[in-house]
Amino acid sequence: MEIMPNRLDRGFELYQEEFENKALEVLRSGWYVLGKEVSSFESEFAGYIGAKYCVGLASGLDALWIAFRILGIGVGDEVIVQGNTYIASVMGITINGAKPVFVEPDEFFNIDADRIEEKITDRTRAILVVHLYGQASNMKKVMEIAGRYNLKVVEDCAQSHGACFGEQMTGTFGDVGCFSFYPSKNLGAFGDAGAIVTNDPEIADDVRIFRNYGSEKRYYNKVVGANSRLDEMQAGLLRVRLRHLTDLTEERIRICSRYLAELKNEWIILPRVREGADAVWHQFVVRCRRRKELIDFLNEAGIGTIIHYPIPPHLSEAYRYLGYTRGSFPITERYADEVLSIPLYNGMTEREQEQVIDRINSFK
Ligand SMILES: *Cc1c(COP(=O)(O)O)cnc(C)c1O
After folding, report:
1. With bands split at pLDDT 50, 70 and 90, how would you rate the model's confidence at 159?
2. What is the Cα–Cα distance from 211 to 213, expressed in whole angstroms?
3. Ligand 1 pocket, residue 346 CB under 6 Å
4. pTM surpassing 0.85?
């Protein structure tokens, strides 16, 4: 493949010297778990997002399930979530024994806030909002509904580092914002990493204790927790990348503005940005009814693509026990059949992008 859908090596090369220096610094420090890199990253990331607290964790999935655990949501409870998300969002709910209640997405691939209320029952405890593909959801409407029904709000920001709704960044609207720093995310580590952000000091404390075997003081365990610590190496490397995140996001926006301006093909529906919301473009996702043909046509020219995601959670084998079938969520399923992510990465050259645009525009 000449042009791959993602190029993590390019993201490394952009700041190679800084990453290498930081890696050596951590190696030589003699301190590898829960140290100054983690606490510095936590305060820097909280500052960037505009939240009071950040607690580093081992992954985005851990951030989700630990958030629900700390909020006390589990067996017998229902959590509302959009149908068209990455399956980890749903696992964050079901690991605790709670039941996911799916809502169809809107035209921006986010939860359709107008369809939330009809799914609320007396078991509903929370809404999980996923800012999918880097686009902020309609948080005004979601927070209004949550307030009226006294529901918790958890935000899955694994794809939305830095995306705003209005003036406020995603992750700061609800009770907890959950982030992943998996290498391919907009703020990517060089291994697994995640975090929660919150403005509630009790939640921050509870998560900080939970991630370390439920222990605040060594060998004194308050609750049965997990081992979900962010390590010093990942935290240090994330601090390097975080310093450049504004530039990295601007680059993604520039690339996607060009896609929006220059892609012209009657078979392809381009993504749209919600008024009043930002997109930080984790993916550039088009829709095409002839997707298989389009994929092959691009592959023939050495251009790779990815489908995010081909099987919606309600139809995956893992969630067969929920009893859904094809047809249960028609919009979610149509998106799963039509979406296609085209090449997008930091360090993408103008020439590479031109090749992608020319090829897509010549698809007949
Ligand atoms: C990546 C991702 C996660 C999970 O993050 P990990 O760090 O891989 O565990 C959760 N939700 C969404 C929407 C994601 O894209």
Report:
1. very high
2. 6
3. no
4. yes
